[in-house]
Amino acid sequence: MKTITENLKNIQQHIIDAAEKAQRNTEDVQIIAVTKQVSIERAQEAISNGLRHLGENRPEGLIAKEEVIGKQAIWHYIGSLQTRKVRKVINQIDYLHSLDRLSLAEEIEKRANQVVKCFVQVNVSEEEAKHGLSVEETIPFIKDLAAYSKIQIVGLMTMAPNTEDEEIIRYTFKGLKKLQQQVVDLQIPYAPCSELSMGMSNDYAIAIEEGATFVRIGTALVGSEGSVSE
Ligand SMILES: *Cc1c(COP(=O)(O)O)cnc(C)c1O
C-alpha cells in the first residue's frame, strides 16, 4: 500500500514533466485531492502532506470532513449538485465545479451569503450520460448569468471520456481550452474565466499539457476505500 507521500511525489514529477512539455509553470497547476472515496483520516493525511485543495462530490461527505478539517483546506464541490441540496453546502465551499443550469444559479442566488466561485461544467465530448452544457450552449448560458449577483464564473470544468484513446481525451481538453479563451475574450465582469478544471487520475498529464489549472485527482493520490493503494 502506497502512502500519500509516495503517490504525491510521483504525481508531482508527472506534473513537472507535463508542464515542461507545454512550456508552462508548475505553479499555475493546483492539485485538488479528491477525497470522496476515503476516510476523514486519509483526508487529514493529504493535508499533512501539504495539499490544500480538497474535493468532494456529496453534501454528506463534504460536511463530515469539513467539520474536522475546517479552514485548513480549500473546499471544492465537484459533483452534480441537486437544487434541493444547495442550501446545505453552498456556504461551506470555496468553489463549485458543476454549475450547469439556471435553476441551480437561481437557488444559489437565494441561499448564498456571498459571491460563489463557480466553474461552468461543459460536456465537451457530448456523452449522453454526462452532466454539463454542450459547447454551443455555454456562452449563451454565461451571458444569462448576468442577473445573478452571487455567481462568479472563475472557469470551465469538464470530464474527458473514459477511454484509452489519448487523442479523444486530448481533443476534449483542447475544446474546453478554446471555449475558455472565447469566454475570456468577451470580458464579462462576472466571468473572468481564467481557470480550467480538467484532468483526473488517468488523464491529468494530458490535461496539463492542454492548459489545466486545477487537476482533480482521487484514486492515484489518496486511493479509494478498501484499496488505498495505487
Ligand atoms: C471522482 C472524481 C474525480 C477523481 O477521479 P479519479 O479518477 O479517482 O482521480 C475527479 N472529478 C470528478 C468530477 C469526480 O467525480
Automatic annotation (TrEMBL):
Organism: Kurthia gibsonii
Domain Alanine racemase N-terminal: 8-224
N6-(pyridoxal phosphate)lysine, modified sites: K36
Function: Pyridoxal 5'-phosphate (PLP)-binding protein, which is involved in PLP homeostasis.
Protein name as catalogued: Pyridoxal phosphate homeostasis protein
Parts of the chain that traverse the membrane: none
NCBIfam families: YggS family pyridoxal phosphate-dependent enzyme
Signal sequence interval, chain numbering: none
PANTHER family: PROLINE SYNTHETASE CO-TRANSCRIBED BACTERIAL HOMOLOG PROTEIN (PTHR10146), PYRIDOXAL PHOSPHATE HOMEOSTASIS PROTEIN (PTHR10146:SF14)
Entry annotated with the keyword Hydrolase: no
Family under the similarity heading: Belongs to the pyridoxal phosphate-binding protein YggS/PROSC family.
Keywords: Pyridoxal phosphate
